[in-house]
Design goal:
- By secondary structure, this protein is mainly alpha-helical.
- It has one domain.
- It is built from 13 helices and 2 strands, in the order ααααααββααααααα.
- It has a two-stranded antiparallel ribbon with strand order 1-2.
- Helix 1 (7-30) packs across helix 4 and helix 2 (36-58) packs across helix 10.
- It is globular and about 55 Å long.
């Protein structure tokens, strides 16, 4: 394994981070034309098709039969549930704010790994988790008519927890499969479970604003499929810990793209809360784990979704 980033690996990594960072903005752009469920199915149908072409050309092997239940469960929580509930939350939550909440996924992954995988955190890890919770609270808070939490933000937090579960399930079998193979399996399983959302989609596509449809196509091809190819390439050509650390840049990318694409100017409280939450995530992932979760399993929350 190389100890530095080659030019190609750095380019692939930058591409993945930018594409994943653009996903919340693309979702906001697509929601005016599609319901959250239709958007999730349409997007991942496109992504699954692109991955299927890859699988045919490269020759992705079939999963072991005993691993199929875990793969289906992973697809259900990490693709179907996460992306559908994320879309519902983003009906009211700006893209930049949502990206900070999504970035809390490693914290939830660490907590779930304690109970499901027997992993342990150092005192720094617990401090990092508490720090992230403070930041998440600031992001999710609404101050009009008294302090309360935004329903949309709470929905996205639930989604981040579900994606944390996806990461833990992925870790359980990732040693037997390449990251991109697991991505294919979970995409296909999760997309099939979204089939109930396909009802009436052809009619909606015919009448949806062109900008919304183009946003869905963009989401399916680039953040869903191309970003995963780029990420897998970077992970195989550079140290995993170094590559994974660049995921902390995604909320910054999302805020910038949302500002340019959607004209969404981030609120001060969201920026402060996001910085605090990201600081906690960094602490958990750099100094907080006695038995670190393999960074190779840390695929981004798109999906990342």
């Amino acid at each position: 394994m190389k100890q530095g980033l080659s030019g190609k690996a750095a380019g692939a990594l930058a591409l993945a981070v930018v594409l994943w960072g653009s996903a919340p903005v693309g979702i906001r752009a697509a929601l005016p034309g599609y319901s959250p469920g239709q958007l999730a199915f349409f997007r991942f149908s496109i992504g699954s098709l692109v991955l299927a072409v890859y699988a045919i050309v490269v020759g992705v092997r079939l999963p072991d039969r005993r691993d199929v239940p875990v793969i289906i469960l992973a697809g259900a929580v990490g693709i179907t549930f996460y992306n559908t509930i994320l879309n519902y939350g983003m009906v009211t939550v700006p893209a930049g704010t949502a990206s900070f909440l999504i970035a809390s996924t490693p914290v939830w992954t660490s907590l779930l790994a304690i109970f499901m995988l027997g992993e342990r955190l150092t005192s720094f890890g617990w401090v990092g988790i508490l720090t992230s919770f403070v930041g998440i609270g600031l992001i999710a808070s609404q101050r009009s008519q008294g302090l309360h939490f935004s329903p949309g933000a709470l929905i996205i937090i639930v989604g981040a927890i579900s994606y944390g579960l996806y990461m833990v399930l992925q870790k359980k079998i990732l040693g037997q499969y390449r990251a991109l193979e697991f991505t294919c399996y979970s995409f296909w399983a999760g997309t099939l479970l979204m089939l109930p959302f396909a009802r009436g989609l052809s009619h909606v596509v015919a009448f949806a604003p062109r900008s919304a449809t183009l946003a869905v196509i963009y989401l399916g091809i680039f953040p869903a499929a191309v970003a995963n190819f780029a990420w897998a390439y970077a992970m195989t050509h550079a140290p995993a810990a170094r590559v994974s650390s660049f995921l902390y840049l995604m909320p910054v990318v999302s805020v910038g793209i949302a500002w340019v694409w959607m004209g969404e100017v981030p609120k001060g409280i969201a920026v402060v809360g996001g910085a605090i939450a990201l600081g906690g995530v960094v602490l958990v992932n750099t100094m907080g784990k006695q038995e670190p979760i393999d960074a190779a399993s840390q695929l981004a929350p798109e999906v990342e979704s």
